[in-house]
Write a structure and sequence with these properties.
Mean pLDDT: 90
Strand order of the largest sheet: 1-2
CATH class: Mainly Alpha
Number of domains: 1
Structural class: mainly alpha
Number of helices: 4
CATH superfamily: Transferase(Phosphotransferase) domain 1
Helix content: 40-55%
Length: about 120
Amino acid sequence: MHVSNVQVGTPFYMDPSTRATGRSSSASDVFSFGVIMWELFCGRPPYVPDNTGGVVKAPDFPSFPPGTPPIFVNLALQCLSIKPSERPSFTQCQEVLQGLQNHLLAQIAHCQNQQLQ
């Protein structure tokens, strides 16, 4: 495996500490994952065009819309923590998301059973 600390990437997805120091880590990747979680749930990028032809942070980033599962919101916001030491590992992310998936599948099954009765 090759690991490089060359700074490349889309600024809105880049960990603030990576921008400041030029050093990336697994915590940097977790930050980017948090941005992607927001983008996937909201269906749009975390930036909007400005009046100069550039882009700026979306005014509602990182807020989630009402009805977003709290577990999902909490995980995404933990991933987006300014302090890398406060971010979860990818293993922890996977565990939380797997638990959320299991919970949602159980709710779907319950609703389907209710409709059959």
